[in-house]
Amino acid sequence: MNERKKVTLPMLFKKVSDDQPITWLTCYDYPTAYLQEQAGIDMILVGDSLGMTMLGYDSTLPVTMDDMIRHTQAVRRGSPNAFLVGDMPYMSYQPSVETAIRNAGRFMAEAGCDAIKLEGGHAMADRIRGIVDAGIPAIGHLGLTPQSVSALGGFRVQGKSAALAKKILDDAKELEKAGAFAILLEMVPDRLCKLITERAENCIIMSLGSGPDAHGQLLIYHDMFGLYPKFTPKMAKVFGNAGEVILNGLKQYAAEVTNKTFPSPENWFGMKDEEFDELKKLL
Ligand code: KIV
User: Fold this and answer.
1) Which of 162, 213, 253, 268 has its CA 20 to 30 A from that of 16?
2) How crowded is residue 55: how many other Cβ atoms within 10 Å of its Cβ?
3) Spatial distance between the Cα atoms of 45 and 233, rounded to a whole number of angstroms
């Protein structure tokens, strides 16, 4: 196992000041977290996208805090050193500031998170403020915010008009003022992302499908490796088709069991002749 230093907030800000892009990936389980730890990924997001990628729902809305805590604990066991972010699921923060603080606290106390992320701009700035005042680092999420996909009219690019782009820019400033140490921009135009990044004073701007000019990049792990069967969004580069490798392996397993070429002697356990003879006498 490859040991590395625990990634901390000052280390992330140092990367920004050294103009070193930050790497961030989603992750929902122990073996994948182990691999991401070995690869030296800076930040891990246990996203509520696990509702779609792991649990097979059509949206992220049915995901509960208990679902999130269970997966986040497994990820922390696999990756003790990445900067771990818990994603606040639908209705775990929208009802009130107090609800938001309590659920953010669960991520820190029960799952060993380093920070939480929540979706929304102006309307959620007081949640960010409350969470940060409770001593919990918080990340905002603007642009395409999947928990509001119905209100946004589907999974589409946000902030294409000047007026909507200005709203996202203002929201980013408000979240920064409320104490968010980072903001994720999902599916906004590249030039808007660049503007927000240039104007950020003490806030790390991360891009998911929003171009190269942020302080770092986030990708959904399942999209990178062909592991989500329903679709692959444009913003996701496929770095390897693990889904295809696994499917071929499964077909081969089924064929080998059927034609009796699996298992072979190296796949089973024997017993000494004398013990077996003795056993037969006992029957
Ligand atoms: O849940 C998630 O994985 C997310 C990403 C879409 C950013 O919030």
Assistant:
1) 162
2) 13
3) 18
**Domains in the chain with CATH codes:** 9-240 (3.20.20.60), 245-282 (no CATH)
Contact call for residues 129 and 178 (beta carbons, < 8 A): yes
Closest CA to 30 of 86, 66, 80, 85: 80
**Residue 201: active-site member:** no
CA of 220 to the centre of ligand 1 (A): 7
Atom of ligand 1 nearest to the CA of 45: 3
- The predicted pLDDT at position 87 comes to 98
Token digits of residue 276: 């077996």
pLDDT in the model for residue 1: 59
- Identify whether the C-beta of residue 165 lies closer than 8 Å to the C-beta of residue 192: yes
Question: Residues of 114-136 as b/e, b for ≥16 C-beta within 10 angstroms?
Answer: bbbbbbbbeebbebbbbbbeeeb
Residues 37, 119, 174, 186: which is the catalytic one? 186
| Residue appearing with tokens 């929003």 | 210
Instruction: Quote the crossing angle between the two packed helices 125-133 and 97-111, to the nearest 10°.
Output: 50
List average pLDDT for each run of 10 residues in the chain, which is 283 residues long.
87 98 98 98 98 95 98 98 98 98 98 98 98 98 92 88 97 98 98 98 97 98 93 88 97 98 96 98 97
Q: What is the pLDDT of residue 37?
A: 98
In angstroms, rounded to a whole number, what is the distance separating the alpha carbons of residues 29 and 13? 27
From 48, 65, 116, 119, mutation site for ligand 1 pocket: most ligand atoms within 8 A of C-beta = 48
pLDDT of residue 2: 60
